[in-house]
Amino acid sequence: MGGAFVLSLPLVRFFGGILGRIMPKDETEAVTEQSFIGRVAVITTGNARAGSPAQGKVIDHYGQAHYVMIAPDQEDDVFPQGTAVLLVSQQGATFTAIRNPSAVLGARTDNPDSNNPHPS
After folding, report:
1. Which residues contact 56 (CB under 8 A, 6 or more apart)?
2. Does the model's pTM come out above 0.90?
3. Across all residues in the chain, what is the average pLDDT?
4. Dist. CA 48–CA 86, nearest whole Å
């Protein structure tokens, strides 16, 4: 009985090596929360107000979504659900943000009449 066990070890190793090359591998990458600063996020749940953060989704440089709490950088700002914001700093577990300046500039340069409900 002990001899069969010893003889089976090379076969297990051989077939294990073949399966190891065929089977898909899981790969993960760790990112720091600090790497989210400077990225655009979208408010997904609630309205973000000073003292009352809302949940937002930010995509890391690997294309993975992360959900974070976001509050406006300016006390008088409110970001409703669906607003694109730029993460500017982190205070504890909450990120502070400003309105995404690229979205504002993009709307003006792509279609100058976008704010005019009655184009000529």
Report:
1. 41, 42, 43, 44, 48, 67, 68, 69, 70, 85, 95, 97
2. no
3. 83
4. 13
CB contact at 8 A, 85 and 43: yes
Which of 62, 57, 59 has the alpha carbon at shortest distance from 70? 57
What separation in angstroms does the CA of 45 have from each of 1, 63, 71, 91, 98? 63, 21, 12, 20, 17
pLDDT tens column, 15-66: 888 877 887 776 667 889 999 999 999 999 999 999 999 999 999 988 999 9
In the chain, beta strands by DSSP E? 40-45, 48-49, 54-59, 65-72, 78-79, 84-91, 94-99
